[in-house]
Amino acid sequence: MGGENSLTIVSPGRINLIGEHVDYNDGFVLPAAIEQHIQFKICKNGTSNKAIVRSKGFEGVLEINLKAITPRPAGWENYLLGVINEMQQLTDGISGFDCEIQSFLPVGSGVSSSAALECGFAYAINELFDLGLDRWQIVKLSQRAEHNYVGTKCGIMDQFASVMGKKGFAMLLDCKSLEFDYVPANFDPYVLLLLNSNVTHDLATGAYNKRRQQCEDGLSFLVSKYGIAPSFRNVTLDMLTDSKSQLDATVFNRCSYVVEEIARVQMAKTLLKENKLKAFGELMYKTHEGLSDKYEVSCKELDFLVDLAKRENAVLGSRIMGGGFGGCTINLIHKDSVNLFIAKAAAAYKKEFGIELNAFETQPSNGTTLIKENHEVGL
Ligand code: GAF
Q: Is 158 marked active-site?
């Protein structure tokens, strides 16, 4: 495609060590980009307003009139159309192009193939037309694309992790100030293992947005009752307990999960720095409990996998990862026990649900990158 004039970009999925459903609640998160990615080949096609996108992994060919971008009723196309729409608000430098997309990421598995798709596409167009957008602009426009064209009112974590990832490091992101630190993520002799339940979720179904709304409702009540500035950073568990009878029971549960998870990430940061992995793993289990009982984004398959992990001494921590309702668990497990655990988990899972389990080890990797003659090139 396009011969020497085509560019190749890779854009990774992400994991999250801890800090789930708090990115849109002014919390802290600890994600990393992963090796598994989506690849984009892109070149100019000499037209002023026609883009053609072919994909392996997402179905179909998308023909786009760049002068008339509008969302489709549903589908993967909206991630791309949303990105073009947002980029056109920032620049008039985009003309016709052809793009081939190949995904090596499992879709709907909680490793954020959607952010990889948005960010990689934005990065590719930015490079091709030399638009001069920086990484943060790509992160933010991709998040807006998801809000405005896909309809998921996601936080910033996934796009941030996909674009800012660095090999060997997790990133502690303050989702309020957007300041972040790279945190070394070498857990030797432990490794990160993802177990894909192969139960798929669809964040756009509304359950995600509903939780976001419930948190906003709870916060606005607490703001008016206590006169605090409108941020979950200012909410304490005492305030919540004191307001329990005035809050809807579900809203109370959502908010108490958020306050507890924000505190857990702060503890997790210290434990990681001190290499106290056992205690870190215990926090992962606590996060899972909260996501399952109070935030209600787990499902029986994921609870089963986490319960299984809890019974293994070699697994220090395990929990649902990402938006929820299916997808992967993330497990911190001793490297010598990986194969045995996968075999045991797969057999038990198949017996219980009749579903195959996929497992893959993963390591923190670089963010969205232009590949040139076998070398990676940053923005
Ligand atoms: C999804 C969202 F896209 C993220 O912003 C984040 O809220 C996550 O769910 C839950 O932590 O992946």
A: yes
